[in-house]
Design brief:
The complex is a heterodimer of chains A (234) and B (790).
Chain A lengths: L2 E5 L6 H11 L4 E5 L10 E4 L19 H11 L4 E4 L1 H8 L6 E3 L7 E9 L15 E8 L3 E3 L2 H9 L3 E6 L18 E5 L5 E4 L17 H16 L1
Parallel strand pairs in A: 1-2, 1-3, 3-4, 4-11
Antiparallel strand pairs in A: 5-8, 6-7, 6-9, 9-10, 10-11
Chain B lengths: L16 H6 L4 H11 L5 H10 L2 H4 L4 H4 L9 E3 L6 E6 L2 E9 L1 H6 L1 H17 L4 E11 L14 H25 L3 E8 L8 E11 L14 E6 L9 H4 L20 H16 L3 E6 L4 H13 L2 E5 L12 H6 L5 E6 L4 H10 L4 E8 L3 E6 L2 E7 H4 L23 H8 L4 H10 L7 H4 L10 E3 L6 E4 L11 E7 L2 H6 L1 H18 L3 E10 L6 H21 L3 E7 L3 E2 L2 E2 L3 E10 L16 E7 L5 H8 L3 H7 L11 H16 L3 E6 L4 H11 L5 E5 L9 H7 L6 E5 L4 H9 L4 E9 L3 E6 L2 E7 H18 L4 H4 L1
Parallel strand pairs in B: 4-5, 9-12, 17-18, 24-27
Antiparallel strand pairs in B: 1-2, 2-3, 3-6, 4-6, 7-10, 7-11, 8-10, 9-11, 12-13, 14-15, 15-16, 16-21, 17-21, 19-20, 22-25, 22-26, 23-25, 24-26, 27-28
Helix pairs in contact in B: 7-8, 7-10, 8-10, 10-13, 19-20, 19-23, 20-23, 24-25
Classes of the chains: A alpha/beta (234), B alpha+beta (790).
Chain lengths: 234, 790
């Protein structure tokens, strides 16, 4: 089993994501350079946070045209697991692998703080070790995290239980006050139709060690590792 | 006597008094230039001298005083004189760190001024092969709203302008640091009327480098190629260093073209490219182009290596067409580096930069002669001995004035009368919590990414930032670094020497609160015009104070920055020395948080045995936040400080943290004990009930001093009730320190009693709302008009 972390010029959470996988989850990791179409036979792709290509024009707008993303799109179409965190989520939306878009935060400012997330579905490679309704404490750090899609898409996402996380209060209530960026229906993470691609704004990479204040995000990596090792055994 | 003419010399320019004035070069200085060259300089050379001999680059007024600072210890690997200081932090790791000002640009163009301030300090760190691990900022602005401290004469327009500067500076810092990918651990943000025309933006950065992989800004090896990498050179920032060495007059906004424009994405690529290039082993020396751009890096690298550098300006990547040699040499375009590579291996280096999409060219080579030689279009345009630009730059022993206390020692009679009356201290506490200098700065620091790189153990909002060093210790118990900034300029106005000592003590104490041992320091000295004897006196006294405090605490100054001429229309700022202290923590998991963690913990006050008399207390109260808010007047002296006693407290805290006896520690700072208790309580919404012993009946005005005085060498700690005795025992071992049990954490109320009199009681939620929302309320009350922000 091997994990691949994409590296764009301007990625700045690539090493953080690789660190969790290698040092905490003890899995083999390779870095995948944006200019190469090769995914080097990895079993899962992680698109880290940062400012790919400086986020010029629009977040993720240039990254989607990189050689590596063409391969990631094929990989995802074949059912390969892809996890996009923060800028990774923005790139997945721009690439059309996930529906919707991430607009500028409602407050028009960058926001970095701990938030609470309610797990809305355990039916995915990324959340099967978590419990539905469970509240996680994870940090956000973004300027464009305000999830938006049209009404029909939202209805479809809700119907198919593809909203994976919602911003909530510490007690798990989905409220306006607990929404850090104005996201539609407090959406913090969504799945594709095949449930193998997850995009999320909060950072599980920053919340996988107790020393850093929360290890609540590690369950997402653990879920993925366990799902893949189960596949490996069959 | 006629000099024998060189075979080739740059074309002399016509020197006029107006030309010299335009370059801020005095007639005496010009005589020095002619003497150094043995001829009349070319215009490019004159420009080069004007930036290198500016106060900003040459420290010509401060150098004689800076020599008094302690700069050595067993940990110091590199002291002042390089791009940043470096200390050994154990396990084969060293850390490079420095604080630098970007005050003048931040006033003219707040967003870009602050952004490029962050960019500049980051390059100083990574040019030494240290990956930036954290940044912090010390910010000073004019007031956002009217209060007793603001005084009369502050118009609505000034408040709005201050608001616009704050917005611009914070978003500039946020924009640059977030994209670059370095966590910002906060720092300090303070407001005083004297900063309305001259805000301060001091940026601190710290990076990690393996002890045996440090790079220096030194050119070596005659014939080796000199490589330029990074942004194309444009016309931005020409004469930035000269601008930073002048007072502002009316129409400062016309200097806007002197402010550089930053591109954090390019800086991120430059970071990765440079670190990768250094890892090839083909790079011998490297320096960033900051103030005075290509000029400074070329002559300084040559001077450090005892060699020369020749560069060919036609090869320099350029953003604008038709730039002349004067413009190219003086441009302060951001995100550029100059490096010397091993001859024959330049291709390896260029390939790394190509991978990162960076412009990189061989722009020249190392000369045997210790000169900076510049060619443009085949013509020699500058040929200057390095020494004359660096070590032989002018050095002034400017007159140091007599110290005269600017405020009376004792309060006016009406204040004494007011103090003798009973007061509602709960109301006073609310006012303090709402005040600009004490209220929560969450609005500021939540705009900064404080967690990227996943090393942040304690981020903004506490006493000090704490980072772990990945790969050291065992997982979850890595080695840690703590860092804090401090500087109380109101105290400095009253007594620069004592205040400077307080700045060292406070920053060190904040670091010690986390359990770390302070090991080294950096300083940013922000003062007015040094040509005024009374201003130079402030600077000289502050340096003496820093020297004494840093010597005793064992925290040598490894570098920093002096920012003079912080005056607008002849109006100087308060003298503002800002200190940054770095501490080492053997096990980051033992870092002590700043806020109450559990209900039912015992609250301890650690302070000095003895203390001041009632009259002394009254004088010390005069420079406190309380006196400013309650009476709007300033008198007296800063609190007493004995730096040896402070050292005892610092050692005691490290010992207590090492024994894992404490659950939280907070410094008693602005607003005194009452505010410290409130801040400790807000973190997790845990209240406290505290009782102070009743004072002797004959002492007047004791209550107010007990709860709001800002005595140094004082912290509030909590521990499990069954650890209290052990903690107090340890404290008793430090002869000068006394530990007193104040009460217990818990409940939803913050209450303070003196003897059996309840003097403060309020619901924590209400206090928190006041403290948390105050800054945003002030901003909402002075909306920035679109035109100002544009």
């Amino acid at each position: 089993m091997k994990f691949g972390v994409l590296q764009f010029p301007g990625s700045n959470c690539d090493q953080d994501t690789a660190h969790v996988l290698s040092a905490v989850a003890r899995q083999p990791v390779v870095m995948l350079w944006h200019a190469s179409p090769s995914l080097e036979g990895v079993d899962a792709v992680l698109i880290p946070g940062g400012f790919a290509y400086g986020d010029y024009l629009r977040t993720g707008a240039i990254a989607r045209f990189s050689p590596v993303m063409a391969s990631v799109c094929r990989f995802a179409a074949e059912g390969g697991p892809v996890l996009g965190i923060c800028n990774g989520f923005q790139i997945l939306c721009e690439s059309g692998l996930l529906p919707g878009a991430l607009l500028r935060n409602a407050g028009l400012r960058y926001v970095c703080r701990q938030v609470h997330l309610r797990v809305e579905t355990a039916d995915s490679l990324f959340t099967h070790l978590l419990a539905e309704g469970q509240v996680l404490r994870l940090p956000v750090g973004h300027m464009e995290g305000n999830y938006f899609c049209d009404e029909a898409t939202l209805t479809m996402l809700e119907r198919d239980r593809r909203v994976v996380f919602r911003y909530c209060s510490p007690a798990g209530e989905v409220t306006t006050a607990s929404n850090p960026n104005g996201s539609l229906a407090n959406v913090a993470g969504v799945l594709n139709a095949g449930r193998n691609v997850l995009g999320m704004m909060p950072h599980p990479d920053r919340s996988s060690e107790e020393l850093l204040g929360s290890a609540d995000g590690f369950g997402i990596f653990q879920s993925l590792v366990q799902a893949l090792s189960a596949v490996g055994r069959t | 006597m006629a000099q024998p003419s060189r075979p080739e010399a740059p074309q002399p320019t016509t020197i006029t008094p107006a030309l010299l004035k335009q370059h801020s070069i005095t007639p005496d200085e010009y005589a020095g230039i002619e003497a150094a060259l043995g001829r009349v300089p070319s215009l490019t050379e004159l420009g080069i001298y004007s930036v290198m001999w500016s106060e900003h680059c040459s420290y010509k007024s401060s150098r004689v005083h800076l020599r008094r600072l302690p700069t050595k210890s067993e940990r110091v690997v590199q002291g002042p004189g390089e791009n940043a200081g470096i200390i050994d932090v154990g396990d084969g790791w060293a850390c490079a760190f420095k604080i630098e000002s970007h005050n003048h640009p931040s006033y003219i163009e707040p967003f870009q001024g602050a952004a490029t301030g962050v960019g500049g300090i980051l390059r100083d760190i990574f040019t030494m092969n240290a990956r930036p691990l954290a940044v912090m900022d010390s910010l000073r602005f004019g007031p956002l709203s009217m209060d007793a401290n603001t005084g009369p004469g502050v118009s609505d327009a000034v408040l709005r302008r201050n608001h616009a500067v704050l917005e611009g500076v914070v978003s500039g810092i946020s924009h640059y640091g977030n994209c670059f990918g370095v966590p910002n651990l906060g720092g300090e943000t303070r407001f005083e009327p004297c900063y309305s025309g001259n805000p301060l933006v001091n940026a601190f950065a710290l990076g990690l480098v393996r002890r045996d992989e440090i790079f220096y800004a030194k050119a070596t090896g005659v014939g080796n190629p000199v490589i330029y990498v990074g942004a194309k050179t444009g016309r931005d920032g020409i004469h930035g260093a000269t601008m930073a060495s002048e007072e502002f007059t009316e129409g400062a906004e016309q200097k806007r073209p002197n402010v550089q424009v930053g591109d954090p994405f390019l800086e991120k690529l430059l970071l990765e490219g440079c670190l990768e290039a250094m890892a090839t082993g083909a790079v011998l020396g490297i320096q960033d182009m900051g103030a005075a751009g290509l000029t400074c890096s070329t002559c300084e690298m040559g001077a450090r290596g005892g060699v020369g550098i020749e560069i060919e300006l036609d090869r320099i990547p350029q953003r604008a067409t038709g730039m002349n040699s004067y413009e190219i040499m003086l441009s302060e375009s951001q995100e550029r580096m100059l490096l010397v590579a091993e001859r024959g291996r330049e291709q390896e280096v260029l390939e790394v930069f190509a991978k990162w999409g960076l412009d990189a060219v061989v722009a020249g080579s190392v000369l045997e002669e210790p000169r900076m030689r510049v060619r443009h279009g085949g013509v020699l345009v500058a040929d200057i001995p390095n020494q004359s630009l660096t070590d032989d730059a002018p050095l002034y022993h400017r007159p140091v004035g007599e110290w005269k206390a600017p405020v009376p020692l004792d309060p006016p009679a009406w204040v004494r009368e007011e103090l003798a009356k009973p007061r509602d201290y709960t109301e006073d506490l609310k006012q303090l919590l709402a005040s600009a200098n004490i209220c929560s700065k969450r609005w500021v620091y939540e705009q900064y990414d404080s967690m990227v790189q996943t090393n942040t153990v304690q981020g903004p909002g506490g006493e000090a930032g704490v980072m772990r060093i990945k790969g050291t210790g065992t997982p979850g118990h890595e080695r840690g670094l703590a860092m804090a900034l401090a500087g109380n300029s109101r105290w400095c106005f009253v007594d620069p020497r004592l205040c400077a000592m307080h700045a060292v003590a406070e920053a060190a104490r904040k670091v010690a609160c986390t359990g770390a041992t302070p090991v080294a320091a950096t300083n940013c000295l922000n003062f007015g015009n040094p040509e005024k004897p009374e201003i130079l006196r402030q600077l000289s006294d502050a340096i003496d104070g820093i020297a004494e405090a840093c010597t005793v605490l064992g925290t040598p100054i490894t570098g920093g920055n002096v920012s003079l001429y912080n005056e607008t229309r002849g109006e100087g700022i308060y003298p503002t020395p800002v200190l940054g202290i770095v501490g080492v923590l053997e096990d980051a998991s033992k870092a002590v948080p700043s806020h109450f963690q559990r209900r039912g913990d015992t609250i301890l006050l650690l302070r000095l045995i003895g203390g001041s008399t009632a009259e002394e207390l009254l004088r010390e109260l005069g420079s406190s936040s309380y006196a400013q808010l309650a009476f709007g007047t300033l008198w007296g002296v800063p609190p007493r400080l004995d730096i040896h006693e402070e050292k005892q407290l610092i050692e005691c805290l490290a010992r207590l943290a090492g024994a894992k006896l404490l659950t939280s520690v907070i410094d008693v700072g602005s607003g005194g004990l009452a505010v410290a208790l409130a801040r400790a309580a807000f973190g997790r919404g845990i209240g406290a009930a505290v009782t102070l012993e009743a004072p002797a009946p004959h002492v007047p005005w004791p209550d107010v001093c007990r709860v709001f005085a800002e005595d140094a060498t004082q912290i509030v700690a909590t521990c499990a009730p069954d650890h209290a005795a052990a903690a107090m025992d340890i404290a008793a071992g430090y002869g000068l320190i006394q530990a007193v049990q104040l009460g217990t954490t818990g409940g939803e109320v913050l209450s303070v009693s003196i003897g059996d009199r309840l003097v403060i009681s309020a619901r924590l939620e209400e206090l928190d709302r006041i403290w948390s929302g105050s800054l945003e309320d002030m901003l909402a009350a002075s909306p920035v008009v679109a035109e100002v922000m544009a």
